Amino acid sequence: MIEIKDLHKSYKMGSNSLHVLKGINFKVEEGELVAIMGSSGSGKSTLLNILGMLDELDQGTYTLDGVPIKNLSETKAAQYRNKFLGFIFQSFNLINYKSAAENVALPLYYQKVPRKERQEKALKYLERVGLKPWADHLPSELSGGQKQRVAIARAMAAEPKVLLADEPTGALDSKTSYEVMDLIQKINDDGNTILVVTHEEDIAHMCKRIVHLKDGIIVEDKKVEQVRAAQYV
Amino acid sequence: MRFIFDRNTWQEIFGSIGKNKTRTIITIVGVLWGIFIYIALSGAAKGMDNGFEKVFESVSMNSMFVWGQSTSMPYEGFKTGRPMQLKLGDVAKLENRIPEINNIAPRITLGNFGTDPVFTVRGQKSGSYPVNGDYPVYTKIATKKIFDGGRFINDEDIAKARKVCVIGERNVQELFDKDEDPIGQYIRIGDVYFQVVGVHKLSQGVSFDSDAAIFIPFTTFRKLYNTGDNVDYFCIAAYDDVDVVQVEKDVKALLKNIHRVNPEDERAFGSFNLGEMFTRVSGFAKGMTFLSLVVGIATILAGVIGIGNILLISVKERTKELGVRRALGATPREVRSQIILESVFLTMIAGIMGIILGAGVLSIINSLTKDLDFPYTNPTVPIPYVLGALLIMVVLGTLIGLIPAQRAVSIKPIDALREE
User: Which residues of chain B make contact with A98, given a CB cutoff of 8 A?
Assistant: First the structure.
């Protein structure tokens, strides 16, 4: 599903250049649930941004579902993001003047899905995250966990190939964190490919594979016994 | 195009401009004020223009007067200070030699230029009024509205030197009883009885005669007062497309020639040029129109710049939201279009409201000044001006929207999302 070869990325900070990713080789199969771990500054968020086509790579190759991702125009990148990827952010990033259902329907709007169908799909995905009764609520009327579940529904609404979650539990207490992880595990059980960036050990162990990043290179890449989050809920 | 008529697009736009209602309203008021000023000013200027036109409607606009004074230079043996007397014979010479002249009306009068008005009697009532000896052609230069049932002096009156007269509204009030029909009645002007054949209405605006002026045939006048070929002054109307100032010069030069006056003598003949005055007044009205156009458009511009400014702030505030949209698959084009459309939409709403408000204020002013003696009539803004203003606003709205739109697009989604 995802294949990265010899990925390099550096940022210019004034006259200095900060080499963040120093040759990453990485492969994700369909249906995997991968945790990317590392301390801050290890390059994990940069890696996720490149995977999400939010950032460009300097060197190396990136293939997503057989499509080479290179030198995309902004428009093409937007279309690929819409088609291939679903994003889950640490700070939820819901649009605060839109109801839960409208937020979920937003990626479908950019896919030019007709209105009726959009609403139906939005409700369907809200139901999957257990928030159908909150469909008409604004984000400000929802709790943190609920917001993240709306964000997950939004990420899934476009039926992407890969879900990218950047610290999805970073802003949540541990109980809600486990609820969110439980949801992510269930989505993964349905066969979706998910990448989770986290620095929390317990969250990482709820995935099926852990990739450790340190100073821009992968220091460890291991399959783990998945801890089901459901037992903590 | 589909984008503009898409219900979803508008939902997005309403969503984002409805988010901060106070700001949206203040923004709208900025442009609304601009278009309101534009409409109100150009309507008022137009009203004034119409008003001036109405003031001049009863007189031929390119007309002039010329009268004799006395010479200030010796010439061909004549000494200085010789009084000038216009003659009836001058009419034919002027008409023949100056083709630009449309009509000449020679006039002779009592009670206007230092002479005493004529004592006029009817039964027990009497009064003193100016009396004019006129030709029918006079009405081609200064329109006389005659009340129903009457007429002005005609050629037959001139030929037979009839003792008929046309009197003014005030004469009727002062000499006749109420509800009495003056037509056909006799009044004594000086020592002679005249039959009233018409009553002239006082014209609003510029007029050469008062509402108590009595008109009698020129030929009758000259017989009565033994004035021979003497004429007090000529009313001259030039053709419409002619420069009256030049005609004025030509007429005076010719008169100097006829009456053997030094061509350099500026004092021998006096003249007054209505065309020049009218040009000046209409020039003023045109200037007002132009000024109101400039001020109006400048105000609109200021308002639209306000919208651009507000949208720029709003884009800054919405950086994160725009980032999310980009991450979810909004193309730069879609983001740009949305912001431009927001700008155009705000401008249009404000514009239409401003036009309605401006039209309302104009009609209020119009009804307030209707009965006042003020040159202000029917203030209207021509439809092309209104459409032009709307078009300007759409164009400006788009252009000004481009700035925040470009700003929004230039933010990379990653930077937008990073911003906390």
Answer: 15
